[in-house]
Amino acid sequence: KRMRTLFLRSHEATLLVIVVVFAVVVNAVSGAFLTSENLLDILKSSSIMATMAIGVFVVMLSGGIDLSFPAIATVSMYVSVRLLLLFQGNLPLAFLFAGVLGAAMGCINAFLIYRFRIPTMIVTLGTASIFLTFELLRALYPAAFDALDGPKAGCPPGADVGGQRARWRPAVAA
After folding, report:
1. In Å, what is the CA distance from 167 to each residue of 72, 86, 87?
2. Which of these, 16, 79, 110, 137, is most buried using a 10 Å CB contact count?
3. What is the pTM of this model?
4. Which class for 123: exposed (0-12), middle (13-18), buried (19 or more C-beta within 10 A)?
């Protein structure tokens, strides 16, 4: 009984009431909000954030805080999309590379924290800025990185480059 009283007086209970009232009002206006299809769409669209929240929770349980996880996730997703475009939908390769890239960036954080005894918050904030800067440069100035994509980069679809037909790979901005 004491737990229930404490919960009803908490901020979480107030937020729960607000969310429920909002859902009821939106459903009353549109009539399509509280359908099973829409609720599944909401679950699917929030799954990435839920996964990242679980990861941050684990880091916080260990006594640290990671401010670079959104940057690491964004860079990994960007590279995965580029690989999917480059290798025409090779999903296992994209997942593998995203995992390896994310782990490598996490290891950079771990090395800096452990080797130089810099506080976690400072290191992850700094590396987040560095990771996002490289991604932003790659997205905004693809010509500067064409050597990484090979000789067919930036060619229009179907162009003949060195005896091979070029595949158009658009630069995906994050």
Report:
1. 28, 8, 10
2. 79
3. 0.68
4. buried
Q: Average pLDDT for residues 103-126, to the nearest whole number?
A: 95
Q: Kindly report, residue by residue over 145-166, the tens digit of the pLDDT.
A: 665 555 554 554 554 444 444 4
Find out whether 109 and 66 touch, Cβ atoms under 8 Å.
Answer: yes
Determine the Cα–Cα distance for residues 76 and 88; give it in Å rounded to an integer. Answer: 18
DSSP string across 117-151: ---HHHHHHHHHHHHHHHHHHHHH-GGGGHHHH-T
Whether residue 170 contacts residue 149, with contact meaning beta carbons closer than 8 Å, is answered with no
State the Cα angle at 115 between 109 and 117, rounded to 5°. 85
CA dist 127 and 72 (Å) reads: 9
What CA–CA distances, in Å, run from 165 to 43, 136, 145, 156, 162? Answer: 41, 28, 20, 10, 8
Query: How many alpha carbons lie under 13 Å from residue 126 in its C-beta half-sphere?
Result: 11
Task: Decide if 66 contacts 120 (C-beta within 8 A).
Answer: yes
Distance, in Å, from the CA atom of 170 to the CA atom of 157, rounded to the nearest integer, reads 10
Q: How far is the C-alpha of 131 from the C-alpha of 45, rounded, in Å?
A: 25
